[in-house]
Amino acid sequence: MCGIIGFMSRKKRMIKGDKVAIALDSLKERGNGKGSGYVGYGIYPKKYKDCYAFHVLIDNSPKFEKIKAEVEKVLEQYGTIIKDEEIPTEDGIIEKVHIPWRYFYEVDEKYADKEEDVVVDIVMEINDRVDGAFVISSGKDLGVFKAVGWPNEVAEFFRIDKYEGYMWLGHARYPTNTKAWWGGAHPFNLLNWSVVHNGEITSYGTNRRFVEMFGYKCRLLTDTEVVAYILDLLMRKHRVPVEYALSALAPRFWGEIDKMPEEEKELHTAIRLTYGGAMLNGPFAIAVGTPHGLIFMNGDIEEDTTMFGLTDRIKLRPLIAAEKDDMVFVSSEESAIRKICPDLDRVWMPDAGMPVIARPWK
Amino acid sequence: MIPSYVPPKYKVEVDPNKCMLCERCTIECSWGVHRREGDRIISYSNRCGACHRCVAMCPRDAITIKENAISWRSHPLWDIDARADIYNQAKTGCILLSGMGNAKEHPIYFDKIVLDACQVTNPSIDPLREPMELRTYIGKKPKQLEFDFVEEEIDGKKIKKAKLKTKIAPNLKLDTPIMIAHMSYGALSLNAHLSFAKAVKECGTFMGTGEGGLPKPLYPYADHIITQVASGRFGVNEEYLMKGAAIEIKIGQGAKPGIGGHLPGEKVTAEISATRMIPEGSDAISPAPHHDIYSIEDLAQLVRSLKEATRWKKPVFVKIAAVHNAPAIAVGIATSDADAVVIDGYRGGTGAAPKVFRDHVGIPIEMAIAAVDQRLREEGLRNEISIIASGGIRCSADVFKAIALGADAVYIGTAAMVALGCRVCGRCYTGLCAWGIATQKPELVKRLDPEVGAKRVANLIKAWTHEIKELLGAAGINSIESLRGNRDRLRGVGLNEKELEVLGIKAAGE
């Protein structure tokens, strides 16, 4: 189960958040009201555009102030909080077991050469060490909003319609292997990587132990978290070109590799040998929002945000892609896309394990 | 002569109503249990090791072997074994020898671990209809891949293409994660080795030479053979090193950690003398340590020397016995240019070991795999080196569990011998193996047909491979990479908290 929807404007036109909520609401039967979430890219005003926007879930308990102070202590170690506030929410819709708080934040100049590593360290430190607080979003000019509830409830609760973004991802959850809690809802985010996922990662134990070797700490109790960390490791830290990184997640079968020309064979063998621990197994369809500065296969540095969809190698979960003018969509079901864009130029079902990569037009 | 006070362990009976006096049993039994006296067969039960050769070959099903149900006063501390050992040592004044692996009733952790399977939310995968990948590469892997970006002109457009910069070191390609362990030519017969060699070639996997060198009849299979360099350096020369697909340095062995080996002179026939490069009839003694290795730095030097000698074309493995310090040693091995660490658990077999070592020294392989894998991960080294586990792997579920605990592949020794007919009678050190496996006596060796033996061993590997595919499919996994170190797919039954912690698994129901 689980329903996913993602879309982006290749012209980077701003689209109101109610669109993603409407589309996701039509997938509500793929969830069970135990978790829904959204991520919008480009949602923050110019003033905070270049700041890291930390969205933190803090337990709504008498210890709230103490936990918040702990979070701020970690943040202040490495930089400056430019502004912080409670994320605006609508009362009376869902039980507010956590208070969502956001910090617009700048990393100290002395860390300029490893700014993103510092942000990753902050996320890991808060998630691992601060009892009662979890960072659910840590990118620039983007934000994750998630909670336990139906898609329309979570959208209403976070007033998603008040935000505008050029790329949105949404997720309706049907938890199957871990408990339903706010932090376990999707999207999972690290820096500018945001992942929504339909399925179950049966290789989770291998994947988790693989990323742990590189300092990541999986503390959100859901298998999807590890996907965000793998992407960060492969594409940001190891600078593996995106197509090859996705090939590490859903590698070509040995039977296919054996038939490749020599150079390609060597490359894909090297990917499987080096990144076997990053291979995702089990049923999955994922949609991912990606960050600035990707090196694509053609070597150009893409300075714009990108989205991709990817399924497992034998396609045990559905994924539909579609295009209309400057818009690209991926979703679990075509109906969700047509709900917000009835006339599509092209609809297709991506092959098993083959990524759909949507990049902005230049 | 001091008489033995130990009563026979088994009782052998030949039913005179069924026996047709063909005397086959008298020929088949290499220990001389049966003898014809007049019109009946007399059996000396005290010579019997329950190898079943006579039973299997009797055309009239006339022979019965039972445990000798002689009464001993029962005692919780002074059990029969303890008393029998004392009688034997009081008779001989010698170290007690034994074969095969640890025979104590310690917990078998493999049997206290159960596997997970998919139900509904994550579909199981049907290996008959979907690809199921067991291919495994053993050897050094890079920490990360690096790419060069090269400008190429395609259709008049200049496009930067990513080219792989990293060169992958030579790895062994296994079609199944099951290899045959190192058992030396000398301990085993040539026909046993030929059976293994033909089987591994057919199955796309590898066998080890053990420390006995590589006999010429095995040369055609050399690209499926891992040569061993042990402390005795038997048979080691450039040709030997270049011939195999990989090299293994043996530091220790699960059945006898901390000691060397001994092949009695009577087993050193002309062929073995030529292969081991020692005089015919002389004892082949492997020292306890390598006399050029007294530190991890010395080991690193030997690894590099072997790599230099083979032009850096062959992966080099290092085998150690599973002991409590194995994780730290494995870290040293991982930083020494070695390509794989082999860990041999205390249930690992042997031709001959002092019984006191076999039963009391070392640790279970399950614990060792988990601890070594965990430590290598903590050091950020796990991805760069392979782990091969051996010692007491009895079935495909053991292979599966070993890989889920953290191994890349396993070696099987006793199981491969059992496929050839071995009864685990534990008397390999006598050289009288009635099945032609652990012997050099030509009349016994010829009992093992290498073609039939190869078929049986290949069948075993293939059967386990099928079962592993089914288990993987049930776990919703279609590639062995996703099983490696995937302890989430395991649960412990009847284990205490500390044992669960060392194994890194949850309790059943969690």
Automatic annotation (TrEMBL), chain A:
Residues 2-362 form the Glutamine amidotransferase type-2 domain. InterPro entries: GATase_2_dom, Glu_synth_lsu_1, Ntn_hydrolases_N. PROSITE patterns: GATASE_TYPE_2. Keywords: Glutamine amidotransferase. It comes from the Archaea. The active site is at C2. CDD domains: GlxB. Signal peptide: none annotated. This is Glutamine amidotransferase class-II. It comes from Methanocaldococcus fervens (strain DSM 4213 / JCM 15782 / AG86).
UniProtKB/TrEMBL annotation, chain B:
[4Fe-4S] cluster 1 binds at C19, C22, C25, C58. Pfam families: Glu_synthase (PF01645). [4Fe-4S] cluster 2 binds at C29, C48, C51, C54. GO terms for molecular function: 4 iron, 4 sulfur cluster binding; glutamate synthase (NADPH) activity; metal ion binding. It catalyses: 2 L-glutamate + NADP(+) = L-glutamine + 2-oxoglutarate + NADPH + H(+). CDD domains: GltS_FMN. It is an enzyme of class 1 (oxidoreductase). InterPro entries: 4Fe4S_Fe-S-bd, 4Fe4S_Fe_S_CS, Aldolase_TIM, GltB, GltB_archl_type, Glu_synthdom. Gene3D superfamilies: 3.30.70.20, Aldolase class I (3.20.20.70). SUPFAM superfamilies: 4Fe-4S ferredoxins (SSF54862), FMN-linked oxidoreductases (SSF51395). Residues 10-37, 38-68 form the 4Fe-4S ferredoxin-type domain. Keywords: 4Fe-4S, Amino-acid biosynthesis, Flavoprotein, FMN, Glutamate biosynthesis, Iron, Iron-sulfur, Metal-binding, NADP, Oxidoreductase. Its EC number is 1.4.1.13. It comes from the Archaea. Belongs to the glutamate synthase family. This is Archaeal glutamate synthase [NADPH].
